[in-house]
């Protein structure tokens, strides 16, 4: 029995050794397979030109360009070359923490500023350190050391949520299941809205650094050492622990956990079963310090270490290369006022703008060297080729549709872009312009003839008007001459002289005869002149008033005053006998019918390049006197008024009754004529 048991045990030992050897062989084979698989990471050699550049974040735009946020600015990788694309203004830091490329806008978040570069403008905002730029529903939110910021066109506004969160350092944010989840140094928060949140929940305290959504699951990193999952009840479940976790990423539906100095752990995100580790020991990576991991649109995996950039290309080519018209130049000037790739209208060009160039860009990280282009402008496509610059010189006027296409060599999958433009026909070649020129020439000729006829007609009208005015003035002068001296006044003077002669009062007789002769002489002399001096007019009126004073049965006083502003009365010119009808009317029909002593005041004033004349009496009023007298007074006033108004278009005439306490106390005749002097 003992011998039998020994045989059985020896058999089991032998079998166990065989199983151990098989397990060891299988493990060795599995490790070798994994090592061989991870050796498929290739170093991107063009990145070696950028020494001491450390990549913080990797992103991609709609054209498949890879954007690298580094400690010395932003780099752009198109599959063939890497170019510097940083924007530094003033004291702006070189270090870039995060980037976001949206349409034709590039957001760059740094330690002390935010830059926005578009096709037409560059905006810069001073802020504290920016950790994440998040876009949702065409709105842009900034996670920074001074809370959450909202980018509103040209403004950067801090959002007010709750005091503790507003003064926290925001590391990440995401829109998840109708709410905003925020990772901060004070904890994990859930807000119903970022502008006017009705509900704010602090799910758990701690330093939360990263958020990652894979399908309908949300994973968070707490204290750089723990990965948690947020369930539907907003409860955090611990899923995985590891020291110094720097980031988590979704790569090919696997959870890539990047630690500070221990490479990458690859987990099944549903079960969190460890699948493999990627580090310098089982791959051709040069370091275990991984700074960024990214999967692009072509399913290539990019890994950045401290000094290198690696790529694991997808073995099969997916889809087709992107295609964009990167630039359009018209007469060697770039058209930068429109987004060419989204411009759906027809670009209107002048006839001289007929030299057009197109720059095509087609990007593929996986297969950049095997891209071909072709184009069509009129009837046929050009042959496929690698040239991405298309030039058209001296195009004829007309409407054009430019079609560009790209593909991978020998592939049937093609991407295309269309751009329409119209070169206007020169105006001198258009039929309507020629017809219009003929019509305009005829109209111009007719206009010239019409203007000439109108000019002749105007001259004739002016001559007729001048003749009419001259005849009218002569008629007025004749009428004025007839009205200048009332025959009744002459008879009174002659009777007065006779009475003085009979009375033997020789002194008064001589004075009266002398005044009367001077008055008659001045009237006869002045009536033949167009203008006399103001001094002569005053002397004539004074002689007339003196004779009236002596011969009239009604006693009255008169005064003649001047306010000529240092001008001499001999220098001022006035039409002769212009005031005589008003003075005569004041005596005969004004003061002659009142019980008290009459007063006649005459005033000459120079004002604003006009000579103003005023005749005032204390009679019964002009309108009352016109009712009581015959036509002589009213006709004299009318003729003199017309005479004054015809002197100049700027002349003004008025007659009004003077009223005191609703009673008429006299008449005021006032007129002004342009001031004329003899120098």
How is this structure best described in words?
Among the domains are: 1-38; 324-428, Immunoglobulin-like; 484-677, Histidine kinase-like ATPase, C-terminal domain (Heat Shock Protein 90, 2-Layer Sandwich). Helix content is 27%, strand content 37%. The chain has 9 helices and 44 strands. Strands 38-40-41-43-42 form a 5-stranded mixed sheet.
Note the main attributes of this structure.
679 residues; alpha+beta; Immunoglobulin-like; Heat Shock Protein 90; 5-stranded mixed β-sheet; 4-stranded antiparallel β-sheet; 44 strands; 27% helix; 37% strand; disordered N terminus
Task: Sum this structure up briefly.
The chain is an alpha+beta fold. Among the domains are: 1-38; 324-428, Immunoglobulin-like (Sandwich), CATH 2.60.40.10; 484-677, Histidine kinase-like ATPase, C-terminal domain (Heat Shock Protein 90).
């Amino acid at each position: 029995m003992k011998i039998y048991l020994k045989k059985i045990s020896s058999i089991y030992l032998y079998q166990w050794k065989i199983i151990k050897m098989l397990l060891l062989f299988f493990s060795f084979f599995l490790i070798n397979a994994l090592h061989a698989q991870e050796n498929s990471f290739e170093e991107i050699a063009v990145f070696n030109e950028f020494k001491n550049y450390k990549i913080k974040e990797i992103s991609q735009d709609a054209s498949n360009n890879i954007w690298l946020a580094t400690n010395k600015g932003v780099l752009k990788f198109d599959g063939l070359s890497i170019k510097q694309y940083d924007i530094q203004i003033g004291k702006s830091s070189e270090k870039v923490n995060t980037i976001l490329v949206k349409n034709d806008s590039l957001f760059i978040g740094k330690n002390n500023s935010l830059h926005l570069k578009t096709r037409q403008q560059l905006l810069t905002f001073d802020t504290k350190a920016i950790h994440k730029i998040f876009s949702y529903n065409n709105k842009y939110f900034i996670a920074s050391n001074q809370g959450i910021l909202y980018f509103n066109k040209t403004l950067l506004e801090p959002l007010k949520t709750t005091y503790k969160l507003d003064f926290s350092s925001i590391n990440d944010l995401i829109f998840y299941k109708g709410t905003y989840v925020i990772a901060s140094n004070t904890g994990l928060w859930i807000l119903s809205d970022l502008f006017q949140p009705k509900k704010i929940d602090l799910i758990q305290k701690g330093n939360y650094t990263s958020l990652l959504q894979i399908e309908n699951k949300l994973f968070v990193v707490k204290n750089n050492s723990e990965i948690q999952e947020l369930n539907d009840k907003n409860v955090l479940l611990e899923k995985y622990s590891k020291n110094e976790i720097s980031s988590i990423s979704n790569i090919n539906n696997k959870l890539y956990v990047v630690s500070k100095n221990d490479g990458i752990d690859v987990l099944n995100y549903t079960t969190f079963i460890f699948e493999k580790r990627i580090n310098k020991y089982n791959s051709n990576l040069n370091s275990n310090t991984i700074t960024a991991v990214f999967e692009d649109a072509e399913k290539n995996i990019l890994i950045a270490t401290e000094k290198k950039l690696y790529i694991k290309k997808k073995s099969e080519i997916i889809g087709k290369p992107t295609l964009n018209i990167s630039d359009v130049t018209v007469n060697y000037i770039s058209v930068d006022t429109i987004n060419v790739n989204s411009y759906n209208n027809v670009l209107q060009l002048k006839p001289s703008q007929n030299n057009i160039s197109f720059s095509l860009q087609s990007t593929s990280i996986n297969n950049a060297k095997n891209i071909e282009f072709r184009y069509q402008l009129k009837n046929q496509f050009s042959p496929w080729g690698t040239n991405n610059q298309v030039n058209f010189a001296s195009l004829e006027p007309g409407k054009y549709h430019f079609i560009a296409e790209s593909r991978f060599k020998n592939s049937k999958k093609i991407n295309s872009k269309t751009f329409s433009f119209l070169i206007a026909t020169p105006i001198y070649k258009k039929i309507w312009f020629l017809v219009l020129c003929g019509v305009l020439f005829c109209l111009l000729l007719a206009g010239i003839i019409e203007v000439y006829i109108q000019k002749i007609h105007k001259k004739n009208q002016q001559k007729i008007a001048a003749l009419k005015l001259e005849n009218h003035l002569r008629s007025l002068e004749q009428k004025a001459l007839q009205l200048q001296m009332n025959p009744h006044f002459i008879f009174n003077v002659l009777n007065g002289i006779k009475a003085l002669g009979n009375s033997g009062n020789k002194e008064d007789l001589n004075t009266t005869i002398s005044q009367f002769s001077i008055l008659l002489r001045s009237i006869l002399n002045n009536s033949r002149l167009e203008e006399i001096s103001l001094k002569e007019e005053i002397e004539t009126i004074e002689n007339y008033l003196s004779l009236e004073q002596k011969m009239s049965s009604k006693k009255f006083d008169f005064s003649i005053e001047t306010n000529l502003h240092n001008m001499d009365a001999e220098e001022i010119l006035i039409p002769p006998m212009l005031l005589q009808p008003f003075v005569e009317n004041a005596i005969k029909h004004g003061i002659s019918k009142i019980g008290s002593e009459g007063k006649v005041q005459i005033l000459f004033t120079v004002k604003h390049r006009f000579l103003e004349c005023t005749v005032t009496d204390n009679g019964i009023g002009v309108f009352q006197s016109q009712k009581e007298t015959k036509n002589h007074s009213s006709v004299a006033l009318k003729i003199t008024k017309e005479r004054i108004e015809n002197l100049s278009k700027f002349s003004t005439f008025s007659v009004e009754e003077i009223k005191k306490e609703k009673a008429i106390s006299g008449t005021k005749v006032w007129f002004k004529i342009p001031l004329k002097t003899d120098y």
